[in-house]
UniProtKB/TrEMBL annotation:
UniProt keyword Membrane present: no
Region (Domain I, interacts with DnaA modulators): 1-94
One Pfam family recorded for the sequence: Bac_DnaA_C
UniProt name for this protein: Chromosomal replication initiator protein DnaA
UniProt entry keywords in alphabetical sequence: ATP-binding, Cytoplasm, DNA replication, DNA-binding, Lipid-binding, Nucleotide-binding
InterPro entries: AAA+_ATPase, Chromosome_initiator_DnaA, Chromosome_initiator_DnaA-like, Chromosome_initiator_DnaA_CS, DnaA_C, DnaA_dom, DnaA_N_dom, DnaA_N_sf
Subcellular location: Cytoplasm
Provenance organism: Rhodobacter viridis
Residues annotated to bind ATP: 158, 160-162
This protein's record includes keyword DNA-binding: yes
Gene3D superfamilies recorded: 1.10.1750.10, 1.10.8.60, 3.30.300.180, P-loop containing nucleotide triphosphate hydrolases
GO molecular function, one term: lipid binding
UniProt-listed PANTHER family: CHROMOSOMAL REPLICATION INITIATOR PROTEIN DNAA
Gene Ontology biological process terms from the UniProt entry: DNA replication initiation; regulation of DNA replication
Amino acid sequence: LWGQVCNELQRTVGRTNFNTWIAPLQLIDLSDGIVSFEAPTKFMCDWVSRNYGEPILRELRNSGVAAERVAIRVPEGRPLAPPPVEARPVVEKAPVAPRRPLRAIEEQELPGAPLDARFTFDSFVVGKPNELAHAAARRVAEGGPVSFNPLFLYGGVGLGKTHLMHAIAHELQTQHGELRVLYLSAEQFMYRFVQALRDRQIMDFKELFRSVDVLMVDDVQFIAGKDSTQEEFFHTFNALVDQGKQIVISADRAPGEIKDLEERIKSRLQCGLVVDLHPTDYELRLGILQTKTEAYAARNPGVIVASGVLEFLAHRITTNVRVLEGALTRLFAFASLVGREITLDLAQECLADILRASDRRVTIEEIQRKVAEHYNVRLSDMIGPKRLRTIARPRQVAMYLAKHLTTRSLPEIGRRFGGRDHTTIMHGIRKIDELMATDRQLAEDIGLLKRLMES
Ligand code: ADP
Ligand code: MG
């Protein structure tokens, strides 16, 4: 009888809708006018009840069943609503009933970002600054049981976060083709979410994101301050962790330092393994340059790099790997155009601007000037004796920045601030550190000033 009703339903709601929403239903019981079904997930229960309850009832009645109500629930033994998150330790989890495949969802293409074919483990050079991040990424790429969740990778721009995430995805795709791996940026996550809201396809969105085995979200700091996206991210995150699915997240800073990110999300992000990619050191930079040069030479036989050139670049270009790579690319292009061997002279000539930019060091004078400008106080007050709060505070900010943006010692900084004692400088820096924890405006001011001077 149900089969007959299904045939009718397929006609009335359409084949796709039928396959997506009604086919996965299991007819459980029919008594007292109540028709009971089981659906694989809570979302499906809600969605089907709301959207297909009426048609189902109608078709049942047409077939002569005295049905009054449709009831849809998840199979016994699976909690309807997840218990509160705080009450659940992440590490030890009760085994979850295997998920019934949602065919329509699983056949759907994942809305991931394209992977860069060059970002593999093979092309990733490991050094002290990134060895931990690399090892953790390797572990995740094994596709074995989840040992930490999430893996949270953070570090400054161009240090290899995206590269590592793509490498995980590549590795899983080749070794574990059966796993559904979804990689995307937090920005794309938001975009999809907003689109789903607009198109009223939020249930599809939820189902889709909850159907993956490995979810990787790059640059998660992007969703800070975006309230409903954060909320949705949080639920997706929890749903996947509950199912024992692996999550990998990256950000430009540690979870606790992402401003305008909900506390509960921060604490969830800290639950797994948090590893940072440190700024590169000389050896790593040299290793990267050598690896890239070898790869280039393999593709372009005849290219000659004089000895000392790579060492020179590794020594002088310290900003980040992206800049380093850019320099090398330009060098190769230039050399092939002019048909010359790559010598130190050629490097200096063709990379003059990059080298100059890398050489730039912020001076204490510059910091004092920018801070004075920002707070609209006189430059002379930076070094003067006034104790007025409106002047003393900016002065302390300048001390703080001098400590963080230059390599000057405290006594040296003291001398540049009108001959103050190093303990005064230390006190000023501590004060700012303390205030920043609670004073958002101040923290923002400092972030802004830093960016101004670092660029
Ligand atoms: P992030 O996402 O941290 O900003 P990316 O992963 O985009 O940085 O890396 C920037 C560039 O530097 C990429 O081209 C990447 O391949 C390269 N890169 C970064 N770290 C390494 C490394 N350890 N070995 C090889 N290439 C690297
Ligand atoms: Mg990146």
